[in-house]
Structure formats: structure tokens, C-alpha cells
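Question:
Now give any protein.
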Amino acid sequence: MMLRLVGVIAMATAVTLIAIAVADFFAAMSSDDVGAEPTKFWMFFLALPFFVVGGFCLNAGFLGAGARYAAGEVAPTARSTMGYLGLGATTASCASCGAHNKPDAKFCDDCGTALATGCASCGKSNAADAKFCADCGGKLT
């Protein structure tokens, strides 16, 4: 919280000094007096350290909040992408309608079709679209 406050104060100071310097420069250049020179342009150079310190403090002050925001935005997308690639959390896909279901679901949430087929020979549960049992090799009907 303190870094954010210091950052805002330093940036406000920098912007104010830059505004004064630029206004003085343009006032001197638009003057009808041939020998007119800017007298406060040095404030521009004084503003640079305030600008750097303010930027550093704001960056450090909002680092955690920015990281949490980015993680909240990216994590769901990354999770679903990894699921489609078959990495990470797995889902049970329905052979009938293609809907994604929870891995432990026995029936499809969308169409109600059974997600697993039991083997008549050994009783092992297999994927609904399997043609042969993964345990004994028996033909599934």
C-alpha cells in the first residue's frame, strides 16, 4: 500500500513539473520578445527522477494484484486447452453427442447415454465407444 501511495505522489510531482516546464518553454517561444528564453525548463530534468521512482514504486506496488488478475484470466483457458489436449484433468466424452462430462460420471449430462460399457466376460467397465474390453480383450456389444 505504501509503494502505491509513494508511486502516485512521485508521478503527480513529475507530471506537474513537466507541465510547468513545457508551458514555460512554449510561452517563451511564442513571445514577441526576440530575446525571450525559457527560465523554468530545468524543471523538466528535475521531473525525470520523480518519474522513474514513481514508475518503479507503482510497478512494485501493483505486482501482486497484476499477477493475481493475470492468473485468474489465463488459468481457465489453459485448463480447458490442456483438457482438450488430454493433459491434466481428464473428462469423459460422450460417444453419442460428444459432450464433456466429469471423469466419474456414469451417464452423459446432455443426452443421458451411458458413458461406460460393462464387459460381459469379466465385468470390467470400458469406454462407451470401445469395441473390445481393455482388460480381457473380449468383444463388447
Notes: The CA atoms of residues 121 and 138 lie 7 Å apart. The chain has a mean pLDDT of 85. The longest strand covers residues 116-118. The longest helix spans residues 2-29.
